[in-house]
Amino acid sequence: MIWTLQATPQPFTVPHAVTVRRLELADADAVQALGPDASWLPASWGGPHGLASSGHAWAAVGRNGRILAVACTYFRGTGYEDVAVYTVPDRRRHHLALACVTALCADITARGHTPGWNCSLHNRASRLLAWNAGFRLVREYVHYAVGSPVGMSRRSLSA
Q1: What separation in angstroms does the CA of 115 have from each of 12, 22, 24, 81?
Q2: Residue 30 in contact with residue 61, Cβ under 8 Å?
Q3: Assign residue 35 a region: left if phi > 0, alpha if psi is -120 to 50, beta otherwise?
C-alpha cells in the first residue's frame, strides 16, 4: 500500500517528560541502544551514526536521553521521501510515533518533497498511524517475495 501526506495530522499530546526533537550525532549511542529489533531503521543511513547525523530523523526522547520513538526518511528520491518509524514496545500507543512523524513530515515538505508511506495491508498499526498522521492511500499493489529460505519444519521430507 502506498500512501502520501494529504491531510492535517490528528491532534496529539506528548507526555511532559518527553521532548520531540531532531536527532544529532550525539544521539548515535541512543540509536544503537534501541537494539536489534530496530536495527533496520538506521541501516539505510549506514548505521546509528549515519542516521543520527543525517538531519532526516526526529525522535521522542525521555529525560534520561533514551529514545522512545524515532521517525526518519528511509528512502529519499527527487520528489518523495519514504517515512519509517519505530517505537520501543513499552511506549507504544502514547502518540510518540505520531509526534515524530508529524515533525519529520514538516521537514520533508519544507524541503519541497512529498512524504510517502509504504506498508502491508496486514499491518493495521502502521495503517492507523499513517491515517492519523495525515497520509491517505494512493495505490495498492501485490508484493512478491522470492528466494526466501523455507524453515526445516515446512520442507517436505519426501523431496
Answers
A1: 20, 17, 21, 5
A2: yes
A3: left
Mean pLDDT, rounded, of the chain: 91
Q: Is 98 exposed, middle or buried (0-12, 13-18, 19+ CB in 10 A)?
A: buried
Among 58, 56, 52, 88, residue whose Cα is nearest residue 70: 58
Tens of pLDDT along 14-27? 999 999 999 999 99
Strands laid side by side in the 18-22 sheet: 18-22, 57-62, 67-76, 80-87, 114-118, 2-5, 135-139
The residues facing 116 across adjacent strands are 4, 82
Span 73-102, pLDDT tens digits? 999 999 999 999 999 999 999 999 999 999
- Tell me, letter by letter, the H, E, C secondary structure of 106-155: HHHHHCCCEEEEECCCCCHHHHHHHHHCCEEEEECCCCCCCCCCCCHHHC
What is the pTM (predicted TM-score) of this model?
A: 0.87
